Give the backbone structure.
Amino acid sequence: MVIIGNGESRKSIKLNSIQSEIVGCNAVFRDCIVDHLVCVDRRMLREAVGHENTKHAMIYTRADWLDMYEGVFEVPKLFYEGKDRPDQPMHWGAGQYALLVGIENCNNEKLDIIGFDLYGKEGKVNNVYKGTLSYNDPDTDPVDPRYWIYQNKKIFDHFSNIKFNYWVDENFKLPPSWKDTKNLKIKNVKKWLK
C-alpha cells in the first residue's frame, strides 16, 4: 500500500504507474486514480467528490462535514487522547489521517510513504499543487512542520508492527525525534524510479 502526500519530492514519480493500493491526500486525485482519499479541507472535499479519479474511491473527511455528501466516510478516530493542541483531532492533517487509513487497510505489513516532505523548499511552501485551486500561492511561507513531525512519530511508535518506508529526496532532514524509530526506514525517492 502506498500513501501519497503532495510534497515536491514525488514530482518524478508517475503516480498512475503505481501497482499498489493508493491512499491519497487532498488533490492527488487530480493526477491519479485513488482507492482511498483523505480530504480534511472542505474545499478539497467539494472538488474530490464526483471527480473521475475518485468514483470508486472511499473518501474520508472530518465528522463535521460528513453530511455534505453521501457516501463519504469519517476519518479514523485517534488511537490516543492528549491535552496538547497537536493531540486534538482538529489539528491533524490529511497526511496523518491518510497514514491511519493506510494502517487500517494494509494487513499489518508495510506502508510506502511518498511526498511527505515536511519542510518548505527554498523558504517557500513545498507542495506540487501550489498556485492551483484551493492551494496557497507559490510565494507563501512554508507550513511549520512541528505538528506533522510530532503526530507522525506518535503513529510510528504506536503501530510498531508496521514497517514504514519513507521516500524522500536527498535534502530531507531527519527530525531528531525520529532518529531511533526502529520501524521507519528513510529511502531516497530516486531509488523508487529504478
User: Anything to note?
Assistant: The CA atoms of residues 61 and 130 lie 21 Å apart.
